[in-house]
Write a structure and sequence with these properties.
With 327 residues, the chain is α/β, with parallel strands linked by helices. The chain has helices spanning 7-14, 64-74, 97-104, 119-127, 161-178, 183-208, 226-232, 252-265, 279-288, 311-326, and strands spanning 2-3, 24-26, 41-43, 57-61, 78-82, 108-111, 133-135, 217-220, 235-239, 269-273, 291-296. Helix 2 packs across helix 5 (161-178) and helix 6 (183-208) packs parallel to helix 10.
């Protein structure tokens, strides 16, 4: 809402209720020897709807994930500018003067919330814009966090596609308030995209089933995968940076304790991320005698062509990387 200031067979049955325009196809599972990160969902185009007579809405979105979800709901009725560059860390991002101009010219500003992109508040204030601000995480049930900075909860809720469905509904509602004539388009695209999210959720569960239960243990650079772990039956046994915020630093004691945890729990890999340096993770992995997967996507989308340049691509890429490393 707007704030003014072969899993194939199972999946095919599940998708009977989805409209033809939003049908999803699933590619066969990769063999255990296949290390490819190719996507495992083939998705048909969303219903396009009518173009906006006065030209597309100008939307300023704070992060790449937010921007992608806005494009999915808005289609040709929106022109989305992304403030956060690909592979950038939203936790320590500092907007540029060009970003101020982008917000100043926007018809609506779409943010994530949960203190992930709190720099957006100053950005909007400095722009002098009176455009409405939509917070897409409103109404999403967050996981509790024991850090004072994140008293509202763990911000990484996009790692649960069922929670992203609420975000898509929020986006469609906000766009409809600014552009009432486009409401049918926004609602139709949101409904179709939510069908994709349901298919993604089922497909991830099927992929994760390839990993023996005793090997479903995660160690990442920072604490970003709690939602993924809760949804798909993993245990986060440790993080290199012991925080939800990448700006935190690990002490020598933290590193030593994590090495002990990795050895005791039989962890086979450490997952480094596209938004943070893998150096400490690599040093820790060398001490613990495990491998490093250094190209997991967490807080930011990847560059075009990376396979993780959309939300659906990010989730599929990460799932394949995790499954291949742990099974």
């Amino acid at each position: 809402m707007i704030r003014w200031r072969p899993f194939i067979a199972v999946l095919a049955l599940a998708l009977v209720l989805v409209s033809p325009a939003s049908a999803v196809q699933v590619t066969p599972q990769a063999s255990p020897a296949d290390s490819s990160v190719a996507p495992f969902l083939q998705i048909n185009p969303l219903p396009e709807g009518d173009p906006r007579p006065d030209g597309p809405l100008s939307v300023a979105a704070t992060t790449g994930i937010v921007a992608d979800l806005v494009r999915q709901a808005g289609g040709q009725r929106v022109d989305v500018i992304t403030i956060l560059p690909a592979n950038a860390d939203p936790h320590d991002f500092e907007p540029s003067p060009e970003d101020v101009v982008a917000v100043e010219d926007a018809d609506i500003v779409v943010t994530y919330g949960l203190r992930l992109d709190e720099w957006a508040e100053d950005l909007v204030a400095n722009s002098g814009s009176d455009a409405p601000v939509s917070v897409i995480s409103e109404g999403v049930q967050p996981l509790a966090a024991d850090e004072d900075e994140f008293e509202a909860g763990d911000p990484h809720a996009w790692f649960d596609p069922t929670r992203v469905q609420t975000m898509v509904d929020n986006i469609a509602a906000s766009l409809s308030e600014v552009d009432p004539d486009g409401a049918p388009t926004y609602q139709a695209r949101a409904a179709a995209y939510k069908g994709y999210l349901t298919a993604l959720d089922v497909a991830i569960q099927d992929r994760v089933a390839q990993i023996p239960i005793e090997r479903r243990k995660l160690v990442t650079n920072h604490d970003a995968l709690s939602y993924f772990a809760e949804r798909y039956g993993f245990e986060v046994v440790g993080t290199v940076i012991p925080s939800l915020d990448t700006r935190a630093e690990a002490s020598a004691r933290d590193v030593a304790e994590l090495v002990d945890v990795i050895e005791r729990e039989g962890v086979s890999a450490i997952f480094a991320e596209n938004t943070t340096s893998p150096n400490l993770a690599e040093e820790l992995a060398a001490q613990a005698g495990v491998t490093v997967v250094d190209d997991l996507y967490t807080d930011s989308l990847g560059e075009p062509g990376s396979g993780a340049d959309t939300y659906l691509g990010l989730m599929q890429t990460d799932t394949v990387l995790i499954v291949n490393a742990l099974r």
